[in-house]
């Protein structure tokens, strides 16, 4: 009976690790953005790791896939089990911290393919921890399913294929796009809220300084004059009680000189967006290709604009540096990072519908009509 339970756990954990790892391996840049959120000063306060987020992301997702394969094949059971246990304990702590303190709203466990709330992510990790503990205490039942040489070759092949996949998607774009801005998306429709959709519910709370500590006091208590003696008013805010319907695209905008041009540009028949969420972090190799593309697209009747969250000073600096003649419009960095996985990247719109997306390495393959 113990052997049967162990083999079922082995199958479940191995498959889940492989699926989770491959989804993130499809988009390691997106996973690195999530790691940056965790490394932020407001979460784990490990900002010194932010410059290495992409490297860490690639290592973690490749290791996750390889561990899943190692478990299913029975390769080095002791090393595999200790690695699985260490990884799940770490991620269980991370998801609990995010859920309890409401620091990161999506753990990124399954990338953009499956969104989980912090508590759902924590529950998933607790279940996984349970199955991994079963495996850990029953390692004698985890035996190799192949002879030594084929076993070693299978693990090496898995590792090599994962490395190749990581390199490919970093040099191009994710093989499968799970984001709200995938090709075929109508941005305007993506921003619509259906009639009768549930609305978010908020509670008004007041913040008072009580004995030197900022303390939330409910609206009812304030109205009932249940404010601690000597409390000093600090602020008032609306606290989210229940999340209503949030459209797939809810933070997209195109602003210039304080004016919003979103609707106007989305109604244009042909638009080419050259996106760099942060010009200071853009790749010089890609920036050098933009002006030539701008001229080619303009000749074919496209409205060519840049989109960035950088300041006017930085925009002017980079336009001069690379001889760019198109205008840049402002959009939130998080939104642009969701749209793009390359800095810079190219997005083609036809009346607000995304018809093509390319990494700057593939700028010569952009479909222009």
Automatic annotation (TrEMBL):
A Pfam family per the record: MauE
Membrane topology: Multi-pass membrane protein
Spans traversing the lipid bilayer: 12-29, 49-75, 82-101, 121-138, 150-170
Localisation per UniProt entry: Membrane
InterPro entries: Methylamine_util_MauE
Main location per the UniProt record: membrane
Domain of life: Bacteria
Domain Methylamine utilisation protein MauE span(s) in chain numbering: 3-137
Key word Cell inner membrane present: no
Keywords: Membrane, Transmembrane, Transmembrane helix
This protein's name: Methylamine utilisation protein MauE domain-containing protein
Protein's organism: Flavobacterium okayamense
């Amino acid at each position: 009976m113990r052997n049967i339970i162990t083999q079922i756990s082995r199958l479940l954990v191995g498959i889940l690790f492989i699926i989770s790892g491959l989804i993130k391996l499809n988009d390691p840049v997106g996973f690195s953005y999530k790691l940056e959120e965790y490394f932020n000063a407001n979460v784990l306060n490990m900002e010194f790791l932010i410059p290495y987020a992409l490297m860490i992301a690639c290592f973690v997702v490749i290791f996750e896939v390889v561990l899943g394969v190692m478990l299913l094949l029975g390769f080095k059971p002791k090393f595999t089990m200790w690695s699985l246990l260490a990884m799940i304990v770490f991620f269980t702590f991370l998801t609990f911290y995010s859920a309890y303190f409401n620091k990161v709203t999506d753990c990124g466990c399954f990338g953009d393919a499956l969104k989980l709330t912090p508590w759902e992510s924590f529950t998933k990790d607790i279940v996984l921890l349970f199955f991994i503990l079963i495996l850990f205490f029953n390692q004698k039942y985890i035996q190799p399913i192949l002879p030594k040489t084929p076993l070693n070759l299978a693990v090496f092949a898995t590792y090599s294929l994962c490395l190749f996949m990581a390199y490919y998607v970093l040099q191009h774009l994710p093989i499968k796009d799970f984001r709200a801005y995938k090709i075929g998306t109508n941005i305007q429709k993506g921003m619509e809220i259906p009639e009768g959709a549930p609305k978010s519910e908020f509670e008004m709370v007041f913040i008072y300084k009580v004995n030197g500590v900022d303390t939330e006091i409910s609206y009812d208590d304030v109205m009932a004059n249940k404010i601690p003696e000597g409390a000093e008013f600090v602020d008032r805010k609306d606290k989210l009680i229940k999340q209503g319907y949030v459209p797939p695209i809810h933070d997209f905008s195109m602003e210039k000189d304080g004016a919003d041009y979103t609707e106007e540009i989305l109604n244009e028949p042909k638009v080419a967006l050259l996106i760099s969420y942060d010009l200071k972090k853009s790749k010089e190799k890609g920036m050098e290709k933009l002006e030539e593309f701008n001229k080619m697209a303009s000749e074919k009747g496209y409205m060519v604009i840049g989109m960035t969250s950088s300041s006017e000073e930085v925009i002017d600096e980079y336009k001069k540096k690379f001889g760019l003649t198109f205008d840049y419009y402002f959009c939130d960095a998080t939104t642009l990072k969701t749209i793009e996985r390359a800095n810079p990247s190219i997005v083609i719109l036809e009346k607000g519908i995304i018809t093509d997306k390319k990494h700057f390495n593939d700028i010569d393959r952009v479909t222009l009509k």
